[in-house]
Amino acid sequence: MTLVTNRTLLDVAAGAGFGVGAFNVADLTMAQAVLDAARATDSPVIVETLAGAHPHGPDTVFWAALLRLIEEYPEVPVALHLDHGPSYETCVRAISAGFTSVMIDGSLDAAGRPASFERNVEVTRRVVAYAHERGVSVEGELGTIGGSKDGTARAEIVLADPAEAAAFVSSTGVDALAVAIGTSHGAYKFDTPPDGSVLRLDLVAEIAALVPTTHLVLHGSSSLPDSLRARVNAAGGRVPSSWGVADEEKVAAIELGVRKINQGMDHYLAFTAGVREALAADPASVDPATYLAAGRESAQRLLEERMVLFGQAGRASLYRR
């Protein structure tokens, strides 16, 4: 089937009560791992990327290659999503390139500080108007997800306000809303193990009740398993201890109304573990085809586990009907 919008994927997921993983990719090898995992588990999936967060030079080169790769998976329902679009202009570029969904992150200003509610509404409404005219769905953000999306400055967590969420949706017409409920971006999230008190799941339930036709999105949801960190470090890495979002909290969030679950660092760790292990096993190797394939296979195994966890496995047939 052809590319679909996030709205289409998430409408069906909402009707059947499951979540859809949105997996960040930094190159074509990682994108193939996501699509292979979706094919293997018969899952719908969202492939997403950040503008500039790849080694392929201009965005136009990478984005065109992503679209060509997705064409090789006609049986997989796929949305191609721009994650954390920093501006109206970036979202327009992605839509022109063929993305079926964009996120406009109006929660921060140009200096990385929390933006005013009014400024967030203004830029989000502008993107929604442009995107909807072209059949593209839009995700907005309310509150501030903590951590770092690209390894640079770390943002503080500013929790979403339920009343503001309702007003934001009414004023902008977004299809999906990323709500800050205590999660954090990046490979170094929290300093203590999860104990059930990190995520404000009560906010998910309250906001879902106020905006029942808008799909809620959980950002910064990687678990950062010790097993992956141990694999990376055993093969020469030095990833420090950190804790992420427990699997049971993600499942609980889905049950309360979250439909899109963003994840990057878990399969980045799995990919890196595969690459490092391949290089450690053959220190004389200089063939990227060999060690990148090991990374892809390692990431795919983790991605398949996540698709089962989120409930999307076995659901592709719902879209083919």
Give the strand tally: 10
In what range is the share of β-strand residues? 5-15%
What is the 3D form?
globular
Distance between the termini: 11 Å
Helix content: 40-55%
Structural class: alpha/beta
Average pLDDT over all residues: 90
Give a written overview of the molecule.
With 321 residues, this protein is of the alpha/beta class. 46% of the residues lie in helices and 14% in strands. It has helices spanning 6-16, 28-41, 59-70, 88-97, 117-133, 162-172, 201-210, 226-234, 247-256, 265-281, 288-310, 316-320; strands at 20-24, 45-49, 78-85, 101-104, 137-142, 146-147, 176-179, 184-185, 215-218, 258-263. The strands form two sheets. An eight-stranded parallel beta barrel has the order 1-2-3-4-5-7-9-10, surrounded by nine helices. Helix 3 links the parallel strand 2 and strand 3 (78-85). Helix 2 packs across helix 11 (288-310), helix 4 runs parallel beside helix 5 and helix 6 packs parallel to helix 7 (201-210). It is globular and about 60 Å long. The model is unreliable at 146-155 and 185-189 (pLDDT under 50).
